[in-house]
Design brief:
about 120 residues, mainly alpha, Arc Repressor Mutant, subunit A, Diphtheria Toxin Repressor, domain 2, 2 domains, two-stranded antiparallel sheet, 6 helices, 2 strands
Length: about 120
């Protein structure tokens, strides 16, 4: 599957919201992602068509496919963030950079970073 930063950002944020509350609402996603509710509505249609989420009219739920993908993206984010913090980057910058880097680095580079982080805990 071709990776898409917007899709990954939505899935990651829906995952994080679902960890905070049993129900994820479009307005919560809009606030967390920093977009309008119509933008979320459009994204949810795409995510639903891709099999990543389901909606009951009021709530957004990750499918098993969506949850698996979101967990992988969030793992990339956390691992890269931890790597950057280990290099001495401040928390705010490490988090922002990890958010960008998680979408663009190759699997080989990510695996090397993950190995390094795991070996240096």
């Amino acid at each position: 599957m071709k990776r898409n930063q917007s899709t990954e950002d939505y899935l990651e944020n829906i995952l994080l919201l679902s960890r905070e509350s049993k129900f994820v609402h479009r307005v919560d996603v809009a606030r967390k992602v920093g977009v309008s509710q119509p933008a979320v509505q459009k994204a949810v249609k795409i995510l639903t068509a891709s099999g990543f989420v389901e909606c009951d009219g009021m709530h957004i739920y990750l499918t098993s496919k969506g949850a698996e993908y979101a967990e992988r993206i969030y793992d990339r984010h956390c691992t890269i963030r931890e790597f950057l913090l280990g290099l001495g980057v401040n928390e705010k910058t490490a988090d922002a950079d990890a958010c960008e880097m998680e979408h663009i680095i190759s699997a080989d580079t990510f695996n090397a970073i993950k190995k390094y982080v795991n070996n240096n805990k």
